[in-house]
């Protein structure tokens, strides 16, 4: 009897993983397709400059933390932040350049996390250039039949960044906020949530 039980246990040990693999592969494929749809929507909204459309890809409880430490909770606060920093009459950022690099990514069924470096640079209205190397963490999750952005966090090295060297607290506040939203959040989420290359796990 003990030998029979041991044989059964051994059989299950080797066959159960095989049974689960097709289902896992199917789920991964479905997640990949859904994430691609999210990316397509973000890209389209970003190219059109359509903030209304882009906000529909944010979870109702989304939390976004900017480089200046300001936190937005929910799409309404994100919209207010965007209007204040990117379209206001006193905006200071003329252009934002970034080349996001995804260092790693984990997919956990119905949610995923990616992280990396934004390799970002801000060009101010004065023509001055401020090179940053912001690091980020982005989280997306499945909500019903859609995938949405639930959290985004970016930060810079507090001891080695160009803003304090510019000698202006006001500059630090505006660049840390306005540039991040317009050039990093949209650019990263639209183009780099899930890059075509294989992730490092």
UniProtKB/TrEMBL annotation:
Gene3D superfamilies: 3.10.450.50
Keyword Transcription: no
Domain SnoaL-like: 42-146
UniProt keyword terms in alphabetical order: Signal
Keyword NAD: no
Signal sequence region: 1-20
Pfam families documented for this protein: SnoaL_2
Protein origin, superkingdom: Bacteria
Protein's recorded name: SnoaL-like domain-containing protein
Organism: Chthoniobacter flavus Ellin428
């Amino acid at each position: 009897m003990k030998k029979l039980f041991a044989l059964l246990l051994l059989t299950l040990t080797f066959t159960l993983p095989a049974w689960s693999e097709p289902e896992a592969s199917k789920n991964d494929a479905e997640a990949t397709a859904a994430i691609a749809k999210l990316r397509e929507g973000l890209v389209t909204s970003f190219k059109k400059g359509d903030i209304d459309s882009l906000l529909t890809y944010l979870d109702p409880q989304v939390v976004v933390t900017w480089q200046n430490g300001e936190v937005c909770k929910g799409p309404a606060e994100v919209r207010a932040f965007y209007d204040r920093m990117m379209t206001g009459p006193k905006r200071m950022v003329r252009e934002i350049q970034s080349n996001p690099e995804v260092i790693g990514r984990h997919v956990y069924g119905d949610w995923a996390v990616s992280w990396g470096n934004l390799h970002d640079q801000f060009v101010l209205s004065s023509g001055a250039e401020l090179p940053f190397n912001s690091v980020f963490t982005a989280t997306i999750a499945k909500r019903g039949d859609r995938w949405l952005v639930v959290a985004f966090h970016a930060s810079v090295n507090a001891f080695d960044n160009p803003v304090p060297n510019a000698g202006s607290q006001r500059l630090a506040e505006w660049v840390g906020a306005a540039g991040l939203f317009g050039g990093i959040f949209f650019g990263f989420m639209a183009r780099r949530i899930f890059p075509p290359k294989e992730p490092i796990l």
